[in-house]
Amino acid sequence: MSDTDPKKKRTGRKRATSHAAAAKSVSIEPAGVEPPPKVLPYSDIDVSRWRDYEHIETGSLWTINARDRQNGHQLDYHGNCVPQILTQLLTRYTKQDEVILDLFLGSGTSAIEAVNLGRKAVGVELKPDMAAYVRGKLEEQGKAEQVGIINGDSSNAAWTGKAIQRTLKQFGKEQADFLFLHPPYADIIRFSDSENDLSNAADTEGFLDMFGNVCQLGFDMLAPGRFAGLVIGDKYAAGELIPLGFLCMERMNRVGFKTKSIIVKNISGNEKAKGRMSNLWRYRALVGGFYIFKHEYVFLFQKPKSAKR
Ligand SMILES: C[S@@+](CC[C@H](N)C(=O)[O-])C[C@H]1O[C@@H](n2cnc3c(N)ncnc32)[C@H](O)[C@@H]1O
Prior knowledge:
CATH superfamily of the largest domain: Vaccinia Virus protein VP39
Largest sheet: 8 strands, mixed
Shape: globular
Number of helices: 8
Structural class: alpha/beta
CATH class of the largest domain: Alpha Beta
Distance between the termini: 35 Å
Order of helices and strands: HEHEHEHEHEHEEEHEHE
CATH architecture of the largest domain: 3-Layer(aba) Sandwich
Bound molecules: S-adenosylmethionine
Number of strands: 10
Strand order of the largest sheet: 1-9-10-6-5-2-3-4
CATH topology of the largest domain: Rossmann fold
Radius of gyration: 21 Å
């Protein structure tokens, strides 16, 4: 039974017993009568049963302490995101059988979670070895048929755009139903030696220009009215905070995306450095007069329904 199965047992649902409580209740139906399902155009969540979705986040502060390591997920790539971000986003913003597009596939977290949830995925990754590794991993897990992997440069709209369209067509789609972006956080982790790798941009402006090209490609490949998630953190350089998150949000807005939410997510669950290293960072923070990053962002955007396809 899926999370969004209308037959799922109701839990924790209390009926309004007084006028005051009834006034606060969203739907009031006679005892024993199920309200008609109310499903949004971009999700399988039945909002008439909104009380049943306690596991679905609606707040802008996400505390995820332990990485999900089940159903094919593993910490096998420095810089991969926690799967629960995808669980949340894909459950809220996609339907069964729909196709998501990830323009920075990395170790394939989005693709694995998409298939786990009964969706399909198209992913672009610059590094040939990583693309091959994810293909192998998905084959081992029996998930390869639902995922199209493109080894390419997401900042090159001409070549990669055509490859994405060909792959979407194989799934019977003209455009994707959800866009996921988890770019390098500028040069914090250097992913390769390629000059097309966003982590090798000469400076912040160079990084943002490359990211802007990716935003445009993502916008063009996404169906109007549909949503995009961007995961990114900020960085320090030469004693100054560089607000990469907000700078990237602005690049998304420039190409036409509307910002819907800014979610702050803890990163303490991701930290590898324990003990001596975290003491060193505490020392550096005290000496340098700054605060250690304990959060990153999940930005949520929508492509306007009125946007040209
Ligand atoms: C932060 S990681 C993504 C991690 C991924 N979400 C995961 O969970 O494994 C960023 C990825 O973007 C890739 N990348 C960098 N520049 C790229 C580009 N121009 N086109 C496509 N991928 C790129 C890097 O090789 C790296 O694998």
